[in-house]
Design brief:
Layout lengths: L1 H30 L22 H25 L6 H28 L4 H27 L3 H30 L4 H11 L2 H14 L3
Helix pairs in contact: 1-2, 2-3, 2-5, 3-4, 4-5, 4-6, 5-6, 5-7
C-alpha cells in the first residue's frame, strides 16, 4: 500500500504541473490585456468594447481570478490536503470566495460579450452558472459531512476550470481542419466542459448508486 502511494505521488505531481503549465500560459495571456492588442488574439476587433466599463472590468477580474481558482482547485483535488484539515478548510474557503466573488460574476459579464452569437453567450453563461452551482453543492455537502458527494463536486469543479484549457486546445485543433466561425467556436465551447461533466456524473451513478 505504501509502495503504491509512493509511486502515485510523482504521477499526481506531474499531472498538477501539466495542468498548471497551461494555467501559467493563460495567466500570462490575461496579463497581456493590461496593454491590449486589438489586432490579433482574443481582443481582435474588440476595441469598441473598452469604451464601456463592464467588458474591461469583467476581463481584468476574470483574467486575474480564474488562474488562481484553477491552481487552488487542482491542488485540493489532486493532492490529499484533507489530511491537514486546517489547511484544507482554509484553501477550500478561499477557493469558494474566489469562485463566487470573482470568477463566476466576471464570467457572467464576459458571457454577454462572448463570440458565437446568442448560443455562444448562452453556453458561457451556463458554464459560469453551473460553476457556481457545483461550488455551492460541494460546500453544502461537506457541511453535512457528505465526504463522497463533496469529492464528486470538487472533481466537477476541476473539470469546469480546466475547460478554459480544453477550449483553447480544441480551437487550435479545429483551425488545423479549417473549421472556424461561430459553429466551430460554440462546438469547442460545449465540448470543453459538457462531456466532462456528463462522464463524471455517469461514473458517480455507476460507482455510487443512490
Amino acid at each position: 500500500m505504501k509502495s503504491s502511494a509512493i509511486w502515485l505521488l510523482p504521477v499526481k505531481l506531474l499531472f498538477f504541473l501539466f495542468l498548471n503549465s497551461f494555467n501559467v500560459f493563460i495567466a500570462l495571456a490575461g496579463a497581456s490585456y493590461l496593454q491590449p492588442n486589438f489586432s490579433r488574439g482574443y481582443l481582435a476587433g474588440k476595441e469598441a468594447l473598452f469604451d464601456s466599463y463592464w467588458f474591461p472590468a469583467g476581463l481584468a477580474i476574470h483574467a486575474a481570478s480564474a488562474p488562481i481558482a484553477l491552481l487552488l482547485i487542482s491542488f485540493l483535488v489532486i493532492f490529499r490536503v484533507e489530511r491537514t484539515p486546517k489547511i484544507h478548510r482554509l484553501l477550500g474557503k478561499t477557493t469558494l470566495i474566489v469562485l463566487l466573488g470573482l470568477v463566476v460574476p466576471s464570467g457572467w459579464v464576459l458571457s454577454y460579450f462572448a463570440f458565437g452569437g446568442v448560443w455562444g453567450k448562452l453556453i458561457f453563461f451556463l458554464l459560469a452558472g453551473y460553476t457556481a452551482f457545483a461550488a455551492l453543492q460541494g460546500y453544502f455537502a461537506i457541511r453535512k459531512h457528505q465526504v463522497t458527494a463533496h469529492k464528486h463536486w470538487m472533481h466537477e469543479l476541476l473539470a469546469l476550470m480546466v475547460s478554459a484549457i480544453l477550449l483553447r486546445l480544441l480551437l487550435i485543433l479545429f483551425h488545423q481542419f479549417d473549421f472556424a466561425g461561430y459553429t466551430a467556436y460554440n462546438t469547442a465551447a460545449i465540448f470543453s466542459w459538457v462531456p466532462s461533466i456528463l462522464i463524471l456524473k455517469l461514473v458517480r451513478k455507476t460507482t455510487q448508486p443512490e
